[in-house]
Amino acid sequence: MKVIVVGYGLSGKRVVDAVNLQEDMELVGVVEFNSFARKMAEKKGCKLFSNLGEAEADIVVNCTLNKINSDKPVINVHSGSDKVPEPNNIAIKRIIDTLDKLGKVKRVFATVLSRGAHATDHNQGPIDAIQQIFGKDPEEEELKNLLPGVDVFTKRVIVSTSRSNTQIVKLDFENLIDKSKAVAALQSNNRITVASAKDGFPDTAHVVEFYRDLGRTRFDMPEVFIWEETLSTQSNSLQMVLCIYPDATSIPETIDAIRTSSGNKLPDSIAKTNESLGINGDETRGIKNGPY
Amino acid sequence: MVMKQGGLRMDPIKVAILGYGVIGRRLADAVNAQDDMIVVGVAGRSASTTLRDAELRAYKIYITDSPKPEDASQRLCNVKGDFGDLLKKCDVLLDCTPKGVPKEYLDIYNRHEKLVTIVQGGEKHSFGGVSFNSFASYPKAKGKKKVRVISCSSTGTTRFLYTMKENFGVEDAFVALIRRGSDPIKSPKGPFNCMRPVMGQSHHVPDVNTVMEVPGFSMAVQVPTSFSHVLSFQVDLKREVTRDEVISALEKMPRVIVGEGMHSTAELGEYYLDMGRPRRDRPEIFVWKESIKVVGKTVYASINVHMESITIPETIDCIRSTSDLEESNWKSIYKTDKALGMDKSEDCYKR
Fold first, then answer.
1. Is residue B348 flagged as an active site residue?
2. pLDDT tens digits, one per residue of A230-239
């Protein structure tokens, strides 16, 4: 599959690296206008194009915030149709899909603490505040569409911190859920990590630092990280606090979207993607996996 | 001279303050504003510069430890005596020292039989076996010698859930708290640039349950901001309601503001700064009107708690309850609110 990536920003550069790790994909090149980003792409060995027409590709991955026009199929990472879900929503969807065998979720209440900005965004804020989001939140609408038949309510705020997002999540099931079964199920999904705060993860900074020491590229954590001590059940409800590194969360799902667009089945793609990106199991429990 | 209910004339309650920090300084001014109580002195550690702040506002200064000549109290203040001297002069002691410190003074407090000691929410319910909230548990403090006022976010949670419970009945409640890392004046003991969850249920709903029966669960994450807390509620009521009913119930409740147009905690802080509130304080909870949503029997809302000032009016009411100065909590609440300039129309207090 010949893939062309538009935009070499926070997500674009990661999609490029991820595509390069796939055996069944070939990166044709990158479309980018910003001079700094172009230099970076060149340094990393990418062929640069000024417009889509110049390149021969089967599929386009749009990593910009803008709409692009193409006669080829386009996968949008940030906005538009055929869009990879938002990282906050990917987190919830992974958890609900994984717990599906334990019971059906009928209601979701997620309080989402979104980071103010990536540290390099000097025009974003806030510097010291918790900012409200009112009115229709497209992110909430998207989650509702991802979970048909489920009563979804999200309360999103923007917090003056960089890098990670956290969510306080309450899932109401149709039946009682057993905590240890839930933990086991979640741990069986490679794209979810359940770790104990007492094993060195008192806050999001320690989570970041762990993956930094692990030597992953850009110390990315595409997995959803759940603190085990925050996982508890109350009659039919399961609640937890999770954290994600939003720049990395959607990369596996983006690769899956590329692969399934050419007719591949999703479960096979998930396994292939996980293998190629080194998402092979929970390193926090001392098991080292992955290509370092 | 003040009139107690029943016609017995009484002198104003003599209140002493230990610790002139974030809470202590606000309580001193709040007591000062009431006509039935006075501040007889402020005590603190000899080296503490906050004693200078207290003296600038004409409070009498007492020290709790042995002074050294370079201490702020020796250089900058007119010290009237030690902590023992102050305790002999007061009816009520408001202990506003950091979490865990009041325990160290228990022996001293126990030596003064008639002394009433009121502590803040950093202490446990077991401090005196009595916890306080003006709406929900006022009579329980009557005649008690050791009472703690529940913490800032627990007070905020209580006010919101009390309103829901009184008007509609509460089947279940879940509150997700997004808490400021540190007060503006303090060095960050909170996170500098990360988020820190409470690993398990947070203390808030359990604390609410020491003053009011309501089923619920609370979870909290600390974030790097200094202004105020945001609390996100999901409350399952006992009956279906309309959004207007919920708004109306909140608007009629004292110590609750329903507002709109504020997009962040910083903007909210700035508004009360402009409105001339001392120290930009807002002891009321602020409910973001835009956040109120009703789905069947469930109410969703997010509220703001200004942690530096929210427990101030509760503590004043606690003084009245423990001193048996006022039988009716709503009469005390009205009196406190009026004196502090945060009162609503009188019929809001006729409950």
1. no
2. 999 998 999 9
User: What is d(CA A36, CA A41) in angstroms, rounded to the nearest whole number?
Assistant: 9
**Are the C-beta atoms of residues B141 and B210 closer than 8 Å to each other?**
no
Q: Which residue of A has its CA nearest to B301?
A: A155
Report yes or no: B247 and B292 within 8 Å, Cβ to Cβ. Answer: yes
For B40, the enclosing helix (H) or strand (E) is strand B37-44
Residue B251 above 70 pLDDT?
yes
ipTM of the complex: 0.85
Q: Please report which confidence band the pLDDT of residue A128 belongs to, taking 50, 70 and 90 as the band edges.
A: confident
- For the beta sheet containing B37-44, the strands, ordered from the edge strand earlier in sequence to the opposite edge, are B79-82, B61-63, B37-44, B13-18, B92-95, B116-119, B146-149, B131-132
Q: Do B219 and A168 touch (CB under 8 A)?
A: yes
Residue of chain A nearest B294, judged by CA positions? A153
* Cβ neighbours for B321, distance < 8 A, ≥ 6 positions apart: B132, B138, B139, B141, B142, B329, B332
Identify from B204, B232, B236, B307 which residue to disrupt to test chain A contact, counting A C-beta atoms within 10 A and taking the largest count: B232
Task: Decide if pLDDT at B39 tops 70.
Answer: yes
Q: Would you call A150 an interface residue with chain B, using a CB distance cutoff of 8 Å?
A: no
Q: Once rounded to an integer, what is the mean pLDDT over residues B87-93?
A: 97
Residue A196 and residue A228 in contact, taking contact as beta carbons nearer than 8 Å: yes
The H or E element that residue A277 is part of is helix A266-277
- Look at B195 and A243 and tell me if their CB atoms are within 8 Å: yes
d(C-alpha A89, C-alpha A154), whole Å: 10
A205/B234 Cβ within 8 A: no
**Which residues in chain A are contacts of B195 at CB distance < 8 A?**
113, 159, 161, 164, 166, 203-204, 243
- Which residues neighbour B71 within 8 Å (Cβ) at sequence distance 6 or greater? B46, B47
How crowded is residue B280: how many other Cβ atoms within 10 Å of its Cβ?
Answer: 19
Q: Each residue of A35-80: pLDDT tens digit?
A: 999 999 999 999 999 888 888 999 999 999 999 989 999 999 998 8
Give me the DSSP letters along A198-247: GGT-SSHHHHHHHHHHTT-GGG---SEEEEGGG-EEETTEEEEEEEE-HH
The pLDDT tens digits of the residues spanning B280-332 come to 899 999 999 999 999 999 999 999 999 999 999 999 999 999 999 999 999 99
Say which of B77, B90, B96, B152 is annotated catalytic.
B152
* Integer Cα distance of A13 and A226 in angstroms: 26
Return residues 163-202 of A near B (CB < 8 Å): 163-164, 166, 168, 170, 197-198, 202
**Token pair belonging to A291:** 């290509």
